[in-house]
UniProtKB/TrEMBL annotation:
HAMAP family: NAD_Glyc3P_dehydrog (MF_00394). Signal peptide: none annotated. The active site is at K194. NADPH binds at S15, W16, R36, Y53, K110, A143, R258, V282, E284. The keyword Lipid metabolism applies. Sn-glycerol 3-phosphate binds at K110, G139, S141, K194, D247, S257, R258, N259. Residues 8-163 form the Glycerol-3-phosphate dehydrogenase NAD-dependent N-terminal domain. Belongs to the NAD-dependent glycerol-3-phosphate dehydrogenase family. This is Glycerol-3-phosphate dehydrogenase [NAD(P)+]. NCBIfam families: PRK00094.1-2, PRK00094.1-4. Keywords: Cytoplasm, Lipid biosynthesis, Lipid metabolism, NAD, NADP, Nucleotide-binding, Oxidoreductase, Phospholipid biosynthesis, Phospholipid metabolism. It holds the Pfam family NAD_Gly3P_dh_C.
Length: 336
């Protein structure tokens, strides 16, 4: 019997992958961060800093970093994927033949597979095998705050309750609470939709429409999340928790959010391409808005806020026109 903590490979060396790898290393797990940029990886491994994505935040000395995926996965007890949604399938394809037998796969990516609209647990199941334990890590968590050791609460959801607990145990620590549950669909829907809704509140704030407008959009946005969640078979309580309401409030109101900042820029009249370039990091809503609307249309669910965000992102209307359309909708009961 040994009480040695399992080694963990974190795949994706952007802001969130680096922050989670740092947390896990601080929790005492042998941790290796895999990324594709040799210069950044060397800085993380040798200088204990990610100058591109988390400048000025010291990383633990025991965190290793590599560009060699086979090396990162050698002997690990857990894999955590933290690449953007557009790179999720390609990363799963790379890891599938290198995954040590019996090792489960978790991810902290938010969004759907662009183009197909598949949920990420569907992509993962198809690429690594339906019998492999899978889990999603999600909730209100800005990378910069986690990397700085500020208090945070998230949730780990898996069909396999034991695996959810294993992943939560690796993450949980003095400043990081990891809850567990068994609703991957609801959790993934919440994490994806809040990014789209944050563009709406950002745009309203960029137009200086006030706090009533922001809060109205958050609350009616939650209603859109709940209605689509019911249609796809997620649990309502998941969306009323960290994976839904919690992340929605954080992303819609916190200026660290890249999706909110995109909305702010659009609301001030800036162009989409310029805003995304200035943010300089992944802005998941740009692709997720299309996939959310495709999903909603497939289920016959009307999502007025999300559909207006999608139209604004495609240049089909201005944020002012989008807001005017929302205000002009027919009067109706709050809950139907
Ligand atoms: N940042 C946050 O606070 C949080 C983020 N998330 C989610 O985590 C996911 C990752 O986001 P985040 O880390 O913030 O994004 P960042 O923009 O900070 O970093 C993206 C990282 O992904 C890498 N990458 C892009 N494409 C590939 C690829 N094909 N193969 C390997 N690596 C690739 C980039 O490498 P390169 O530099 O070489 O381009 C970069 O290291 C997103 O789904 C996001 O929604 C979830 C919760 C919190
Ligand atoms: O998912 C996040 C916080 O929970 C990060 O949000 P952004 O991607 O909008 O920065």
């Amino acid at each position: 019997m040994t009480d040695r903590k399992p080694a963990v490979a974190v795949l994706g060396a952007g802001s969130w992958g680096t922050a989670l790898a740092s947390l896990i290393a601080r929790n005492g797990h042998p941790t290796t961060l895999w990324g594709r940029n040799a210069e950044q990886i060397e800085a993380i491994d040798q200088r204990h800093e990610n100058p591109r994505y988390l400048p000025g935040i010291p990383l633990p000395q025991n965190l290793r970093a590599t560009t060699d995926l086979a090396h990162a996965l050698d002997g690990v007890g857990l894999i955590l994927v933290v690449v953007p949604s557009h790179a999720f399938a390609e990363t799963l394809e790379l890891l599938a033949p290198l995954r040590p037998a019996g090792v489960g796969v978790s991810w902290a990516t938010k969004g759907f597979e662009p183009g197909s609209g598949r949920f990420l647990h569907e992509v993962a199941g198809a690429l690594v095998g339906e019998d492999v334990p899978l889990a999603v890590v999600t909730g209100p968590s800005f990378a910069k705050e986690v990397a700085s050791g500020l208090p945070t609460a998230i949730t780990v959801q898996s069909d396999d309750a034991d695996f959810a607990q294993t992943v939560a145990d690796v993450l949980h620590g003095p400043t990081f609470r990891a809850y567990t549950g068994t609703d991957m669909r609801g959790a993934e829907l919440g994490g994806a939709m809040k990014n789209v809704l944050a563009v709406a509140t950002g745009a309203a704030d960029g137009m200086e429409l006030g706090l009533n407008a922001r809060t109205g959009l958050i609350t009616r946005g939650l209603n859109e999340m709940l209605r689509l969640n019911q249609a796809i078979g997620g649990r309502a309580e998941t969306l009323m928790g960290l994976a839904g309401l919690g992340d929605l409030v954080l992303t819609c109101s916190g200026d660290l959010s890249r999706n909110r900042r995109l909305g702010l820029a659009l609301g001030r009249g800036e162009k989409l391409e310029d805003a995304v370039r200035a943010i300089g990091q992944v802005v998941e809503s740009v692709q997720t808005a299309d996939e959310v609307m495709r999903l909603a249309e497939r289920h016959g669910i009307e999502l007025p806020i999300a559909s207006n965000v999608r139209a604004v992102l495609h240049g089909e209307m201005t944020p002012a026109e989008g807001l005017a359309r929302l205000m002009a909708r027919e009067q109706k009961p709050e809950f139907e």
